[in-house]
Amino acid sequence: MRSFSDRGFWNCLELAETRGDRQKRRSLLTFSVVGGGLRGSATAAAIRELVNSALVSYPGIGREEPRILLFEEREEILPLFDPALGKAAHRRLNITPLVVTPRSAYSASYHW
Description:
The protein is an alpha/beta fold and 112 residues long. The protein has a single domain, classed as FAD/NAD(P)-binding domain, CATH 3.50.50. The protein has helices spanning 6-18, 22-28, 38-54, 83-93, and strands at 30-34, 67-72, 98-102. Helix 4 (83-93) links the parallel strand 2 (67-72) and strand 3. The longest helix has 17 residues, at 38-54. The termini are close together.
């Protein structure tokens, strides 16, 4: 499973900026978080903030290119909280470039 590290994050941005291959760029600019609980949702939001602020230094990467995927196998994120809070968080987090995918199980892993 790919883990998040500062060095890996910056390497992905640097490599993506120089790649012409669309598929490789997309792969480098996709960040996945498994688990839509409090920590997973907060991590996905923090990655989104980091990506948005980092793009200032990478003019070759369009704002619409990076994707942050949040996988949760239950119907809603934040399942241990009031359902209204989970729905509100889902709406708030589903702003580009973060994609919330409820009712999805994560079964693949990628080793760096």
